[in-house]
């Protein structure tokens, strides 16, 4: 299943419901989630940070988001970080 900016136009409450539904599919389905809002990917097994079409960081949520110092921007799209 591919989700491309699936939560971009949602408020935080509805985003949490979508996130819970996605989390429930974990282990049953392969999901590719494309997102700028960092909270959207916090339950993913693996993350990739892409800049100018190139992968610049990969790993767990903690290593990509927290390790790259992006945690202070959790509710902002990466393009605004």
Mind explaining what this structure looks like?
This protein is an alpha+beta fold and 81 residues long. It has one domain (2-80). Helices cover 25% and strands 21% of the residues. The chain contains 2 helices and 4 strands, in the order E-H-E-E-E-H. It has a two-stranded parallel sheet. The protein has a two-stranded antiparallel ribbon with strand order 3-4. Helix 1 links the parallel strand 1 and strand 2.
Characteristics:
81 residues; alpha+beta; two-stranded antiparallel ribbon; 4 strands; disordered C terminus
Major beta-sheet overview: 2 strands, parallel
SSE pattern: EHEEEH
- What is the mean pLDDT? 79
- Rg from Cα: 12 Å
> What's the arrangement of strands in the largest beta sheet?
1-2
Number of domains: 1
Strand content: 15-25%
Question: What kind of assembly state do the chains in view correspond to?
Answer: single chain
Shape: globular
The number of distinct helices, counting runs of at least 4 residues, comes to 2
> Helix content range of the residues, please?
10-25%
How many angstroms separate the termini?
A: 27 Å
User: Which stretches are low in confidence, meaning pLDDT under 50 for 5 or more residues running?
Assistant: 76-81
């Amino acid at each position: 299943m591919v989700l491309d900016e699936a939560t971009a136009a949602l408020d935080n409450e509805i985003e949490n419901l979508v996130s819970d539904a996605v989390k429930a599919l974990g282990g049953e389905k392969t999901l590719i989630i494309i997102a700028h809002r960092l909270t959207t990917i916090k339950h993913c097994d693996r993350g990739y940070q892409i800049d100018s079409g190139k992968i610049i960081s990969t790993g767990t949520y903690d290593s990509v988001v927290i390790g790259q110092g992006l945690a202070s921007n959790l509710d902002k799209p990466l393009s605004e970080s």
